[in-house]
Amino acid sequence: MSQPTRVPFLLIRFKNFLLLLLKNKLAAVGMVVLLLFVFLAVAAPILTPYAPTGASVSEPYDPPSWITTFNGPLGYSQNAQFSALTLNATGLATISKQAAHSVRLTFASPLTGGTVQLTEKLSYPYQGSPKRLLGFAIVDVPNSIGKPFTVTAFVDRIGVSRFVFWSPTEINSTGQHLPSPPIDSSQSTFNAKLGLGAQFSAATYVFAAQIADYQYVLQIHVPAGFVGTIDVQDFQLSLLGNTWGIFGTDDAGHDIFSQVVYGSRLSLEVGLFATFIGIGVGLLIGLTAGYLGKLVDEVLMRTTDMLLVIPFLPLLIVLVATIGSGLIYIILLIGFFSWMGFARIIRSQVLSLRERPFIEAAKASGAGTGYITARHIFPNIVSLTYVNLALSVPAAIVTEAALSFLGLGDPTVITWGSMLGAANTAGGSISNLAWWWIIPPGLSIALLSLSFILLGYAMDELFNPRLRRRR
User: Fold this and answer.
1) Structure confidence by residue, pLDDT tens digits, 368-404
2) How many CB atoms lie within 10 A of CB 431?
């Protein structure tokens, strides 16, 4: 039969096999769960804009934002940012907007002095104070000026009180000028500027009144006859809340949901590639030992027995610590040290098959070892390959997670195991562990492993008539 006619037949055969497999409820559930994780792995850049270990998205140890559904909104907040920049130059300067939070002011010798005011507003909607506030304002003087001018910045709780973040500062030189101390409530020097002790945060102090309107103001006061250009850059004020996203944040403020999504890629890679290696090696050794027998069988099986008695995880720990903790090394080591049990299963099946009459008939007709193995023996053990392939993936995933949990995984990538290890290290004790940092990767490992196990059981039932009759 020519190749063009075989390919459609193979596709039709695969489609029929898939439809037959999905009639099994276990297989259907397993396939749905597996496709969910495949979707997460493929669509990771679309599902989340944040890198797993990139810039911090919020404050450390923020619980998920949906926690307010159970605990109520009181005391909880999310990230917020002042926006809607407005300017009031009162005829003193011409204004050209450079970016969302940057403007250029050009003064042409006003007859009288005056104040240019830049304002951003925020209606704070949460019933809890933010954990941290970060303010920015860069005043850049690109060219020399003849007279000094004054800059000040403050936050107004409209109609109630004013908090000065950048004390009135005289500027008479070119270059960039920034608030001193920096506007950051995590810095004691800034809190002290507002008259707060070391144990108090300006974020809580300034935003103590919830459901209120605020404005962040930068004022530039120029004298009469002032000539020159002033660039105001990165003028904004950000508030970091105490809840974040779907799964919260870790000890560095990274998005845990992004880590779980990108971790699904590596878990699938490790599980599938390591299992393919292990199944391939086991299949080759089992076929060779079972069909050739005699001295070849004795040597291969004694080697297999020797490797079987060596504790698997301690051996991997020693090898990873010696060779290296790169992901490719971990995949290769898991694959090359997980074939022994499958090899013995294949050998026992081949020993039974080689005594069958159709094998004797093939030998009598002059068929060689390679032909008999490929055309007569392998098709009769392919069901074992499918089943063990599905059942071996969870073991590879859990092994990689165990190595990463012990700190022996690849430090340059995020996996579910490394997430659990980092949570354990950062927590220090069970009472300090953040549940939103532990449950998502742990549950993901369990669900992905369960999907392959369900598929393996379903295929075992499909290929084993005795199991079908029992059900």
Assistant:
1) 777 787 777 877 787 788 888 888 888 898 888 888 8
2) 6
Q: Which residues of 93-107 are buried (b: 16+ CB within 10 A; e: fewer)?
A: beeeeeeebbbbbeb
Residue entry with tokens 């060689």? 368
Residue 1 has pLDDT above 50, yes or no: no
- For 447-467, how does the pLDDT look when each residue is reduced to its tens digit (9 = 90+)? 999 998 888 888 877 776 665
Q: Which two tokens stand for residue 64?
A: 């998920």
- Note the pLDDT tens digit of each residue in 63-112: 999 999 999 888 899 999 998 788 888 778 888 877 788 999 988 877 78
281 contacts 290 by C-beta, under 8 angstroms? no
The answer for residues whose C-beta is within 8 angstroms of residue 43's C-beta and 6 or more apart is none
* H-helix or E-strand spanning residue 6: helix 3-22
Mean pLDDT for the stretch of residues 310-319 = 84
**Torsion of Cα atoms, 465 then 468 then 469 then 471, to 10°:** 160
Rounded to whole angstroms, the Cα distance separating 93 from 109 reads: 9
Structure tokens that stand for 23 in this block? 């009639």
CA distance linking residue 417 with residue 406, whole number of Å: 9
206 CB-contact burial (10 Å; exposed 0-12 / middle 13-18 / buried 19+): buried
**Alpha-carbon span 439 to 418, nearest angstrom:** 13
Query: How far is the C-alpha of 103 from the C-alpha of 232, rounded, in Å?
Result: 5
- Choose among 148, 156, 154, 158: nearest CA to 167: 154
Q: How far is CA 81 from the centre of its chain?
A: 25
Spatial distance between the Cα atoms of 419 and 256, rounded to a whole number of angstroms: 9
Amino acid at 361: A
Q: Of 281, 259, 272, 307, which Cα lies nearest the Cα of 404?
A: 259
pLDDT score recorded for residue 197: 78
Residue 273 class from Cβ within 10 Å (0-12 exposed, 13-18 middle, 19+ buried)?
middle
Q: What separation in angstroms does the CA of 175 have from each of 135, 231, 275, 370?
A: 20, 10, 60, 79
Distance CA 251, CA 99 (A): 33
Q: Which residues contact 27 (CB under 8 A, 6 or more apart)?
A: 21, 454, 455, 458, 459
Helix (H) or strand (E) holding 218: strand 212-222
Residue 216 φ then ψ, to 5°? -105, 120
What is the C-alpha separation between 3 and 8, in angstroms, rounded? 9
